[in-house]
Amino acid sequence: MHSSSTILQSPFAEDVRRGLLAAQKAIPSKYFYDDAGSRLFQDIMQMPEYYLTRSEMEILSLHPAAIAAALRFSGPFTIVELGAGDGLKTKELLKYLVGQSAQVKYLPIDISGEAMQQLQHKLATSLPDLDVQPEVGDYFEVLERLDLGQQPSLFLFLGGNIGNYEPEAALALLRLIHRYMQPGDQLLTGFDLRKNPRTIQLAYDDPHGITRAFNLNLLWRINRELGGTFEPDKFDFYCFYNPYNGEVRSALVSLTEQQVRVKALDLTVHFRQNELIKTELSRKYTLEEVDALAAASGFHVEQHFFDCKHYFTDSLWVK
Ligand code: AVJ
Known about the structure:
Blueprint: H1 11-21, H2 35-46, H3 51-62, H4 64-69, E1 77-82, H5 88-99, E2 104-110, H6 113-126, E3 131-132, E4 135-136, H7 139-145, E5 153-157, H8 167-180, E6 186-192, H9 197-204, H10 210-226, E7 235-242, E8 247-254, E9 258-262, E10 267-271, E11 276-283, H11 287-296, E12 300-306, E13 312-318
Parallel strand pairs: 1-2, 1-5, 2-3, 2-4, 5-6
Antiparallel strand pairs: 6-13, 7-8, 8-11, 9-10, 12-13
Helix pairs in contact: 2-10, 3-5
Keywords: Methyltransferase, Transferase
Protein name: Dimethylhistidine N-methyltransferase
GO molecular function, one term: methyltransferase activity
């Protein structure tokens, strides 16, 4: 028996072990976001080809009045944000609500303590009257221990992160969010929509090589944190958009037959030439699919908000 299999390891270590031992190798995309990967994601958001962030920013900065008017709360309410990150987009909505003297409390949740500290600091300067109560942790772990009381809530799940989940997992996640909400609570979720296939292809297969570096960072991260011996030059990045099903699939490709050690896992992995490591799914939705997902997870769709080009939607649902 290998001693390492009896040692309790980090979720990252366990998921890497499972992913590299699988018949079809895979590393979950949530592990993109260590410090180096979060910086690369900031660079991705700056690329002209990566339209998602700007489209959603446009929705929240152009339509805060329409969004506010669609909220059902007459008295005090809480905004709970799942995966708040830098909170830059949400600030646009918060600014409007505070300007209207709404009695709103903001409860951003994120796995990154650093991001939550920066967000709190920024909001203390720009919106000093807003009550901000950041929580650090996995969103469901935080929701579980948090007592929202009887106060009605607007939940935010922005950025199109739902697109990273396989269909069954996306449905399970929305059902879980639904379970935490009270009747009458609302959810605003971001979905990246189907559009010209070349526009989508370019946002991921970018000519600057930033998305490539973002994917290869997974191998660097295994080297750094788990004592891996990956030579990232011996892997390529490949991604493609399939306009028939709306899926962008990303992968790393082993350029040669090779062996890689992962010391912390006491594991040696063999790669065939051109063998893939699956990294990410970024699903693009039709509005019919958004509506179907809402219904299947127990919500009623109230309104879709769009950017000018209709590239993205923030969809408002009620429980
Ligand atoms: C942050 C999950 C919305 O899927 O578009 C960017 C991450 N991946 N480029 C996305 C990502 C490649 C992004 N999300």
